[in-house]
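Write out this protein's structure.
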Amino acid sequence: MTLVPRGNFFDIDRVFDHLWSPTSRSEPPESGFFAPRVDIKELEKHYEITAELPGVNKDDVHITLEDGVLSITAEIEQENKEEEEGKVIRQERRYGKYMRSFTLGNNVQDSDISANFKDGVLTLTAPKASEEEPQKRRIEIG
């Protein structure tokens, strides 16, 4: 497989997952960087990346490809509402910036990558490049 997730220094969520169990984890920071959870599938003619981006609007999702690195970024801002009755006791929804990057291999046709976003799930389709057999030729000695 040539789609390789890149390490993300800002994946605070993963650090906490390894330090504490989910039941003892404290509330997430009010703003910060998160890596969306992804599934990567290799199919016969393409790779498929599915990323969860709950609460994110389609217009706030940005996908870039630069120097063989495919990056997904999105941002969701916290709603600041004045509560007239009651107060927020616990807030577990995430607010901040989502970031995730993948290094594309040489068998991905990067010019034909497509994206679809529905119900908070981003689906990227990366077609495989046609496999060309290495050409063999004889080199004459002069």
